Amino acid sequence: MSIGDICNREVVLVDRDSSVRDAARLMRAHHVGDLVVAEERDGRRVPIGILTDRDIVIEVIAEDVDVGSVAIGDVMSFKLLTAREEDDTFDTIKLMQTKGVRRLPVVDKQGQLVGIVTIDDLIDLLAETLMDVAGLIAYEQKREERIRP
Fold first, then answer.
1. Does some domain include residue 136?
2. What mean pLDDT comes out for the span 142-148?
3. What residues contact residue 107 under an 8 Å CB cut-off, 6+ apart?
4. What is the CATH number of the domain that holds 114?
5. How far apart, in whole angstroms, are the C-alpha atoms of residue 93 and residue 103?
6. Which domain holds residue 76?
7. Separation of CA 69 from chain center
8. 77-107 tens-digit pLDDT
9. pLDDT by residue (tens digit) across 99-129?
10. Considering its fold, how many domains does the chain have in total?
11. Does 27 map to a domain?
12. pLDDT recorded at residue 149
């Protein structure tokens, strides 16, 4: 299964010039812990960074900086790691684990943003898969009981 099959296609976007206060309000309104910072390039939305709720806490609030006076571009993560939508899900999990990231923008072959995958999405997928396996085992046990009295 590819990461494009499970990523969330509804990504909340911002530009680097917006204030951190506006970013926090967007996160609250959309119930998300991250915003993808994107810019237009040749008619495509290309991710250039990510701002997380943790970035706001560590870089702004903990430093007692006025959230209204700081632009997203001042505190966002610039070392953006992305996955391509055709990447294998388990390879993507390993990449996220190796790099220590919980959220990963997903792009197409041209680098345009198509979605985002989070650790929560992956946990849901794995939990669903385990439930399917458990259901298979239960089915086989009941089938065997019927065959062998």
1. no
2. 76
3. 46, 47, 82, 83, 84, 85, 113, 114
4. 3.10.580.10
5. 10
6. 3-118
7. 27
8. 888 999 999 999 999 999 999 999 999 999 9
9. 999 999 999 999 999 999 999 999 998 888 8
10. 1
11. yes
12. 64
